[in-house]
Design brief:
Rossmann fold
């Protein structure tokens, strides 16, 4: 059986869709899977069981990326095409069955919106796929006492809590060790640099890991606190107690989805509140609540 998943160009969106992909994969054991996604999301699927082909495509002017992708897929007859992008491409491919996730903004959590479109009940939570080498590297890097993971980066300024507040939070929570996570590239390094400079004992994992290695490392954290980002979604999917920080993005849609996940939003209208309005103590208390730890007297 040949299944095609057409999914996101963004890491976070790909992670949010992972639970639905895993549900479909498990419902069709032995299927040969193809995933088409953007480069930033490709690492999410590197360890996907049954993956036969990973196709990376990026947005081009005049929507030419869809024509290019169609030319790479049209020669195969698909048993099932699952399109998380809500495009017309699925209808232009030879397929016995098609499942389309509607586009556009709608109320409710994004992972539930996906499940509703695909008629999956209950909505499957996001997952991560890792392999023994990823978990071995995580153990080599992070074995030891309880670890606080920090995610001080994001893809735009409106999502970013001030660096000095991450530092103050880490000092208040006082877990034995700290690891700072971030993606590849100079921009991520620059955003994480003030946190790393103020926490000289922290483990620097910025740009150092594949997505699967990052998932395995996040799974070893006692707590992860981070801005609304792909790393936040990855931490929640890995089963780590995850606290997401929200300001100019919508927690009602993109709060971290996991068995041990919560969020704190800056005061003000949803999606319009400034992150510098989010006080350290509010985040620290939410973190203690998530861990089930009473605040010190």
């Amino acid at each position: 059986m040949a299944i095609l998943f057409i999914t996101s160009s963004r890491l976070g969106d790909a992670v949010i869709a992972s639970g639905a992909i895993e549900h479909i994969r498990c419902a069709h054991p032995g299927a040969k899977l193809t995933v088409a996604c953007g480069a930033a999301a490709a690492g999410v699927f590197a360890r996907l069981p049954g993956l036969e082909r990973l196709i990376i495509f990026e947005k081009q002017s005049l929507d030419r990326h869809w024509l290019s992708l169609w030319s790479r897929l049209v020669r195969q007859r698909w048993d099932l095409v699952v399109d998380f992008r809500g495009s017309a491409l699925a209808y232009a491919l030879p397929a016995r069955r098609r499942l389309i996730v509607r586009g556009g903004r709608r109320p409710g959590r994004r992972y539930i919106q996906i499940a509703d479109s695909l008629r999956l009940s209950p909505p499957p939570l996001p997952v991560v796929w890792t392999a023994p080498p990823d978990r071995a590297r995580a153990e080599d890097l992070l074995a030891g006492p309880a670890l606080l993971g920090l995610g001080p980066t994001a893809n735009w300024d409106g999502k970013i809590w001030p660096a000095e507040r991450f530092v103050a939070l880490a000092q208040r929570l006082a877990l034995p060790r700290i690891a700072v996570f971030g993606g590849p590239g100079a921009a991520e390094r620059a955003l994480a640099a003030p946190v790393l400079a103020s926490l000289p004992g922290a483990i620097d994992l910025v740009g150092a890991l594949s997505v699967a290695e990052a998932a395995a490392c996040l799974a070893r954290c006692a707590l992860f606190v981070g801005n609304d980002s792909g790393l936040m979604h990855l931490a929640a999917a890995a089963g780590t107690p995850t606290l997401g920080l929200f300001g100019r993005s919508r927690a009602s849609e993109y709060a971290p989805a996991g068995l041990r996940a919560a969020y704190v939003a800056a005061p003000g209208p949803e999606g319009e509140a400034a992150m510098d309005g989010l006080p350290v103590e509010a985040v620290a208390q939410a973190a203690r609540d998530l861990l089930g730890v009473m605040a010190p007297a």
